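agent> Task received from the user: take the single chain below, predict its 3D structure, and emit structure tokens. No templates, no multimer pairing.
agent> Plan: (1) validate residues, (2) run structure prediction, (3) serialize to tokens, (4) report one or two observations.
agent> Step 1 OK, no nonstandard residues flagged.
tool_call: predict_structure(input=
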Amino acid sequence: METQMTATQVQLGDGLTVSPLGFGGMALTPVYGDVDPVEALKTLHHALDAGVTFLDTADIYGGGSNEELIGRLLKERRDDVQLATKFGLVGTPSAGYTDIRGDAAYVKQAVDRSLQRLGTDTIDLYYMHRRDLRVPIVETVEAMAELVQAGKVRHLGLSEVTAEELREASSVHPIAAVQSEWSIWSRDVERNVVPAAAGLGVGFVPYSPLGRGFLTGTVDAATLGSNDFRRNIPRFAQDAAAANEDVVDAVRAVAAELSVSGKPATPAQVALAWLLAQGRKLGLPVVPIPGTRKADRIDENLGALSLDLTPAQLETLDAAADAVVGSRSADPSWVSQGRE
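)
tool_result: status=success, residues=340
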């Protein structure tokens, strides 16, 4: 079955309007292997040309180099972009994190550093990247709200928070979006966080919507490079990854039944279409942010907007999700899953 998606924008919470798919900037750092900065910038330009204008980065991606890369893009095309970045983690994904900070002083320092690297006066969506358990979340959000008042930030977001943390934060200032891992093989957020977001009018921005590439059927966990971040994730361990191939097989089977613009659908398109369908089912706007280094992958991902999965296909994918082996994080307390 094939349908056409006519909407060109999606409204998250607090009036923030973005493209129906976003772009996850972490893929353009060495976290999954080496990156060519020239090609990375070309990929970002292609994303905007294709209509993917919601760009997501963070101050720790590449130790700040990802914000600098996007800053080069913004010099030419700031008006074309809905810009999201994050603060709170100290360290880098590849070298490891040394701390999480949510104190007011750090919030103010972090935003000024990000604005300088990005070369812009205002960030459209500013996320707390992870919860600093030493600081009440209301204090962190109060400091973030001051950035809105100062004109440095337009909207606030939270990443990997629990339902109760989201409710507490929303009592201080409207929250435009929650960003957490959510995909066919990472569904723990559906129990508490997603219903809370729907009830509060908060949009959801799933990161790693393609299972860090695994759901595309193009990743062999056994051959990941020594500097590949995924080596630290339990479900990419040898035995777990072998068992999880059954999930990929189910996605492939659904893709074989579908087409996009006259071509066979791909597993990536099916995985993204499933997420969009979940958003409609659960009553909240969902804007996945798949990342890639290749321009043609952006075009492929956009094909998901034209897919309409049948109830039977959704059942097949739901059943596959129930068979996932391994946690999505080596430390569950690092994400909302471990604190719910």
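agent> Step 4: summary for the user.
The CA atoms of residues 27 and 292 lie 5 Å apart.
agent> Done.
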